[in-house]
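Lecture 7 notes: from sequence to structure.
We start with the chain below.
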Amino acid sequence: MAKRSQRLSVAYDTDDMLVTFKVLDAADKVLATQSFDFDAVHDSLQEKVSLYGLNKLLTDRTSAEKNKTAKLSAMSDVMDSLSEGEWAKERVVGAIVVSPEVEALAELEGLSIPQVQKALAEYDKDTRKNILGSESVQAKARELREARTEQVIPSLDKYKV
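Predicted structure tokens for the same chain:
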């Protein structure tokens, strides 16, 4: 396997509406930097660029979901988070990224997460928000959040070859 000799880092400056990319070497030494000013985008294209960014955000954050109906539900979850001011959900490496509310509903109903996502996709945003905001779902979601903070990662050493 080849060693990664360079990587790209990105930073967003929402005050000045800049996106800055840095090329870093393996020791994190900056090799090159370039900033791009959103205001430099022609006025007639700024809305399209913003919507393209939203599209990329929704598709990138749901890229692991292959079932298209479930993908729409997952996109709704991402959009709900964004509309609540939450930039990113807590990610656990190797875990399915899903809100505690969706996981709670799956447990309460005895369904898989994809089944719940598919079922939720059948409802409009307000109804989904109502379902996921119900007292029983919220109580279970609180339990799951607590459990996530106390989660111990098990060893899989017995499967090493």
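Points to note: The first strand starts at residue 6 and ends at 13. The chain has a mean pLDDT of 86.
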